Amino acid sequence: MSKDLELTGIANSVLDLIGNTPMVQLQQVGADLSCPVVVKYEVFNPGGSSKDRPALKMILEAEKAGLLKPGGTIIEPTSGNTGVGLAIVAAQRGYNCIFVVTDKVGVEKVDLLRAYGAEVVVCPVAVAPDDPQSYYSTAERLVKETPNAYRPNQYANQSNPEAHYETTGPEIWAQTEGRITHFVAGAGTGGTISGVARYLKEQNPDIQIIAADPEESVFSGGSGRPYLVEGVGEDFWPTTYNPDLVDRVIPVSDAQSFLTAREVSQKEGLLIGGSCGTAVSAALDVAAELGPDDLVVVLTPDSGRGYLSTVFNDEWMGSFGFLGSGSPGVAEVLEARDSGARPNLVYVQPEDSVRDAILLMHKHSVSQLPVAQGEMPLANAEVFGTIDELRTMEAAFGDPGVLDRAVGDVMKPRLKTIGIGESVERAVHLLDEVSAVLVLDGGRPSTVLSRADLISFLSTDSL
Prior knowledge:
By secondary structure, this protein is α/β, with parallel strands linked by helices. 34% of the residues lie in helices and 17% in strands.
């Protein structure tokens, strides 16, 4: 092993670069606010996110407790950032890594984890936490199957919030010279917001702690589904989250999260990720209620470089209904459609019978239905297929028993999708190939657009 250089300007290892991240005021997006909004810019950690802090703390504590032995394997379910932090620590301290992610995690994050030498296992996002296919269950199985394995379990490991209590909180207090009045951060594991909150409230109990949460996440009263923003929000209550320290929770939509991330990146020159957009959106809402004597600090956990194929990709944003691409568009076609009393989206569950599906089609005068698992609002990932009246009746003619089978047994591939803001030209192109498409609005399935709907629109003076 090489001898450490005794030079104050040179770190002994990459681990010494974790923490002491800078803060910067939002001058452009907060220009019309009397209350200053300051970003704690965590991208300056060597792994590019705030997760480097608990990653180091969890591994050091595991070594002290004898839970992680030389040559061992670190296994963790992650949205990417914790995995990167753990991979950096593992590289320095001689461990192998296996990370389990969901299929909503961008390809950039998966490739980044592999770049650090980690093995990555991808699991479906549209399953319950206790489902054997979930990324929680998969991680537990891998821990049991892998010799000398250790799972840090960031959702229950108290070293997670402790890392932020020991480092992030003190940094914010010192950098603001104690002037901070409001702290805003996302809540995923809850480690960041709980650790920082505990430290700040010890310094000044009047400091307000605000959790920025995706709509439908449990922290803001939802079920945990559906939302597209990564690395924030949950479908269960982590024990690393301390709700007693949080004064307010602000739900933020996927659309607002992504559009805010793009605005901050373009106007401030700070390339931030989707969950950062969630936090900044909430911080701007809070600051709008305050005055010049207040100071809002918002923690942005990572960089936008992990979202170049999604949040910062116009085609992806348009296809999920977050961006428009000119007029007339799909929204205008839907507005012109005489939908009568028909609900926005009619669909069947995979366990419903084919007979019930046909009756539903007759009731709503449609020829096909999406097949989806769950209640409204649905996630796009929860739509699994489609059932077509004509093909189903043809099958039933040959075998009447088909009518009593489950829809999931006979369904066809799912409908193609189109964003509600996409152009009529795009709709024409898709409906030239298929008879109907599923419309996404704000990332969620909204309704079915048929070829007949489009022909009706084009035959009028709507254009």
